[in-house]
Write a structure and sequence with these properties.
heterodimer; A: mainly alpha; Helix Hairpins; B: 20 helices; 2 strands
Chain lengths: 130, 492
């Protein structure tokens, strides 16, 4: 049971580690790392479902009768590209956030945002009174 | 040419995007994007005509036969959604150049249009394709460009909103990917039609239940169903005005399309609604969403926030209609997709005009605007009345059908709650009307002129459509009910 579903266990454990990092960590780069781990677990899920026991690589040659399903590999190539693009965009955003806020900690950013909100509201009420 | 329309629908904006790079001047890029989007709109009109007269169109990409190759499949529902997306995109683009001149630095104008076209490509692709994995690819094309578009906002909070949307959106999309993978594991196919035939044989397995749960949660994250809506208000508020007008009308609609497609076509009505308690769940979440989001809208000080929360509430109405799973309920849902796109894009464009003149959309800045920008404010009022569901606007038509569907089912307590929810809309719309027409301008504020023509044309095009379809709803109703009937497998 445990050994037979070895790949699935790895997938689930990685998935939970990834999601946990995204939720629990306040550091924006760590969140992106968590997201990448989460996505990687899905890649492994796809690739392990393609494996046929005793099957070789899907090459048309003599002596090869049984081979693994190549389709999930191709699908996951696309998903890897998407994952890389997401990570790159996320990191680019973190750089911009660091320039704008001077911090990459969720708490600091939320604190700074609350301040800006209070200021705009204060200005608005002052304008109404005067 | 005509037989290649389904793929041209997606290819035209996709190819137009890199060509923008070659046209350096931002005016030129704007005209070109408008042209590409208009062509996409014309194609969608032709497709809708073709579908309504001769039935489902199936297009084999690259000539590979359906279950193996990727199939583009256009039925009434797809054609209807394609029309909404490309139509809104074209109308909103008319105002784009004027608006971004004030909101986005000049060197980024070309990039803005490229991202816009890519996002449009993604949405059109999600709707046209009949292949489950292709959905994921297009979903990511539209989402990645959406994150970048939102980050173009002036305020630094736009960056933070975009980052949060990126995290939530990626989790949602990856959930959908897991669901599709599990379905493939059980059936060995990715084609939606093929899936719908093969899934019933293996329906009673835990893998299929898990696949269904992953897909539904992923899609609900994308469509901002309460309580998965947290990314939406800030993303809509701090994005550039044009982006908000485009996304508010289309992005959540595409996700709702996916929800409908997966529950009704891929998994099938009996599996989604009988085996699993999806009906009760969506009814409950939809109603809670209406009340929580509408109440939140009342307390917002930024008018873009008000309407962003109102969008979440409208998703609630759409999901309640969906949960009835009757033809009338589904017709109401589809009608509301169309109608909500009309009202929200008009309202957010009008807010864009206010940003153009005043530089912000705080509620207190609206004081006295009714005299200074009469046409823009009138548009917001008509859009607001439509949100409430006043007769002669489209909002009334879809609410009417929703109530009829609920009463048909005998769910009168739900019908009463829907009416109460509309009363909350009266309050948040009234706060804006009160500020614009009954309050004096702030002391020391400079009087502003009416919005420029390039704003007024698209806003009033949408408002006129709003009133036209509110009075004569035959056309939209015909398409919506045909789509609902084909989804529930009843021949019209």
């Amino acid at each position: 049971m445990i050994i037979g579903l070895y790949n699935d266990w790895v997938v689930v454990v990685l998935m939970m580690i990834g999601l946990y990092i995204v939720i629990a960590h306040g550091n924006l780069i760590k969140k992106i790392v968590g997201l990448a781990i989460f996505q990687t677990s899905v890649f492994i899920l796809y690739i392990s479902m393609a494996k046929v026991e005793g099957g070789s690589a899907p090459i048309l040659a003599e002596g090869i009768k049984q081979f693994s399903n190549p389709l999930p590999h191709v699908l996951i190539l696309t998903a890897i590209v998407v994952g890389v693009a997401t990570t790159a965009l996320g990191l680019a955003l973190v750089i911009r956030i660091n320039e704008a806020y001077g911090s990459i900690e969720e708490e600091d950013i939320q604190h700074l945002d609350n301040q800006t909100q209070d200021e705009t509201e204060l200005q608005a009420t002052e304008g109404e009174q005067s | 040419m005509i037989s290649h329309l389904p793929v041209l629908q997606v290819i035209v904006p996709l190819m137009a995007a890199p060509i923008c790079l070659l046209l350096k001047r931002s005016q030129l890029v704007w005209l070109f994007s408008l042209f590409a989007s208009a062509i996409a709109f014309i194609i969608s009109v032709l497709l809708l005509q073709q579908v309504m007269t001769s039935g489902v169109i199936s297009y084999e990409l690259g000539g590979w036969e359906a279950p193996w190759g990727i199939e583009y499949r256009i039925d009434q529902l797809n054609a209807f959604l394609l029309l909404i997306i490309s139509g809104v995109s074209t109308v909103v683009l008319i105002a784009a150049q004027t608006s971004i001149e004030k909101e986005i630095p000049k060197e980024k104008h070309t990039l803005f249009y490229i991202l816009y076209l890519l996002s449009l490509t993604g949405m059109l692709g999600i709707v046209s394709t009949g292949d489950a994995f292709n959905v994921f690819v297009f979903l990511e094309i539209s989402s990645l460009s959406a994150y970048a578009l939102i980050a173009l906002g002036q305020d630094r909070r736009a960056l933070w909103a975009s980052y949060q949307y990126l995290i939530m959106g990626t989790i949602g999309a990856t959930f959908i990917l897991i669901g599709i993978g599990l379905m493939y594991q059980m059936t060995g196919t990715l084609n939606m039609q093929d899936l719908s035939q093969r899934l019933p044989d293996v329906a009673q397995t835990r893998t299929v239940f898990t696949a269904f749960a992953f897909v539904i949660v992923g899609v609900c994250l994308k469509l901002a169903l309460f309580p998965l809506h947290l990314w939406l208000p800030n993303a809509y508020t701090y994005a550039p005005s044009i982006v908000t007008a485009f996304f508010a009308a289309t992005a959540t609609k595409v996700a709702i399309y996916l929800l409908i497609r997966f529950t009704f076509t891929v998994f099938g009505l009996s599996f989604s609604f009988t085996t699993l308690p999806l009906q009760e769940l969506f009814l409950l979440l939809g109603l809670t969403g209406i009340f929580v989001a509408s109440s939140a809208a009342i307390y917002q000080k930024n008018v873009k926030h008000v309407f962003a929360y109102s969008s979440i509430a409208q998703v609630g109405y759409i999901v309640v209609g969906f949960s009835t799973s009757t033809i009338t309920g589904l017709t109401a849902t589809l009608l509301h997709l169309f109608n909500h796109a009309l009202m929200k894009s008009a309202i957010f464009l009008a807010l864009g005009a206010v940003v153009y003149r005043l530089g912000n959309v705080q509620l207190s800045s609206f004081n006295g605007l009714g005299r200074q920008m009469p046409l823009t404010m009138a548009a917001i009022v008509i859009g607001g009345l439509s949100l409430i569901g006043v007769p002669l606007t489209v909002g009334f038509v879809s609410k009417w059908y929703l109530l009829t569907a609920l009463l048909e089912k005998g769910w009168w307590p739900v019908a009463i709650l829907i009416l109460l929810g509309s009363l909350l809309a009266v309050i948040y719309v009234w706060r804006i009307v009160e500020a614009a027409y009954f309050k004096k301008p702030l002391a020391g504020s400079v009087p502003v002129k009416e919005a420029p023509l390039f704003f007024l044309i698209p806003i009033w095009l949408l408002i006129t459509a709003n009133i036209y379809f509110g009075i004569d709803s035959r056309l939209s109703l015909k398409v919506a009910s045909a789509a609902a009937q084909s989804l529930l497998g009843v021949s019209p």
